[in-house]
Amino acid sequence: MEKRIVNGDIVLVPYYPNYEAALEWYQDKELCKQVDNINFVYSLERLKNMYNYLSSGGDCYYIEYCGRLVGDITLKDGVISIVICKEYQNRHIGRRCVENIIDLAREKGLDQVKAEIYSFNTQSQRMFKSIGFEHLEEDWYVLNIKR
Question: Whole-model pTM above 0.85?
Answer without folding.
Answer: yes
